Amino acid sequence: MPETRLIFFQEADGAVPVKEWLKKLQRKNRRAFARCVGRIQRLAAFGHELRRPHADYLRDGVYELRAREGNVNYRILYFFHGKDVAVLAHGMTKESKIPDADIDRAIERMKQLEQNPQKHTYMEDDDG
After folding, report:
1. d(CA 2, CA 18)
2. Helix (H, G, I), strand (E, B) or coil at 33
């Protein structure tokens, strides 16, 4: 199975929501950050084949990466663009059910990326 290419969604203003969320998490809780990075690595390795407990399908093409540290659940919402590209769209701390507004935000980001992939794909530079 070929490795899945991961990209980060980028807003029109240049903001990269998942990277920003991960940076905050790294400062706040390094262990949780490490767990989330581990899940991202599993997504790269397994792509569409990744299932519970590591990932789950939500709705309308949006999936969640699932990580837990202590009593806190961390989620990264993502979607697929083409066959072998997963787009990391949104990160959050989950209390119980993922709010519809967060899923809707990921769906909107999916639509934006489909309309203009170059504008909404974060390209990491060598020092980033």
Report:
1. 24
2. helix
Q: Cβ(102)–Cβ(91) under 8 Å?
A: no
Q: Which fold has domain 5-115?
A: YaeB-like fold (3.30.2310)
Q: Given this model, what pLDDT does residue 82 score?
A: 87
In the predicted model, residues of the chain with pLDDT beneath 50 are 126-128
Residue 14 confidence (pLDDT): 96
Please give, one letter per residue, the 3-state secondary structure of 54-91. Answer: CEEEEECCEEEEEEEECCEEEEEEEEECCCCEEEEEEE
Listed by start position, the domains of the chain span 5-115
Q: State if pTM tops 0.90.
A: yes
